[in-house]
Amino acid sequence: MKSDLPLAADDGWDMSPRRETAVRVDMPTTFEPLSPDRPLPSARGVLSSAEIEALLRPDLSDLPALPPEPEPETIRAKPMPDVERPAGPAFGHAASTDIPVTARRLASRLTVALRKGCGLRA
């Protein structure tokens, strides 16, 4: 089965065979299991787990105490007359028209046909 993807040499990001074998040789063949008491290497040398925890969680006792949180504001409802529903007919019911039923059916079929055939939304 042949892949449809372009070859690595075609995109200009390929490695020379010499470099590719060097990368494969650099990879370790076995992996040591990690144990919690094993020291971890770093740029400064080998750090113990206590030193790592001290670096991740610094001592913050010298910082000043936080002021108490203020009480939350109470939010009161404001009257919004322009958002109130009008006292007209219930939503969902269309007003009756004098367009015959056959004309409405033909219009809906033409709308669907234009949408499917031409991509137009009528």
The total number of structural domains is: 1
Helix/strand/pairing class, anyone? Answer: mainly alpha
Radius of gyration: 37 Å
> Tell me about the biggest sheet?
2 strands, antiparallel
Strand content: under 5%
Describe the structure concisely for a colleague.
The chain has helices spanning 17-26, 49-56, 101-118; strands at residues 40-41, 46-47. It is mainly alpha-helical and 122 residues long.
Topology of this structure?
Blueprint: H1 17-26, E1 40-41, E2 46-47, H2 49-56, H3 101-118
Antiparallel strand pairs: 1-2
Can you give keywords for this protein?
two-stranded antiparallel sheet, 30% helix, mainly alpha, 122 residues, 2 strands
Tell me what the structure shows.
The chain has one domain. A hairpin with a 4-residue loop joins strand 1 and strand 2 (46-47). The mean pLDDT is 74. The chain is 30% helix and 3% strand. Strands 1-2 form a two-stranded antiparallel ribbon. It contains three helices and two strands, in the order αββαα. By secondary structure, the chain is mainly alpha-helical. The longest helix is centred in the C-terminal third of the chain and has 18 residues, at 101-118.
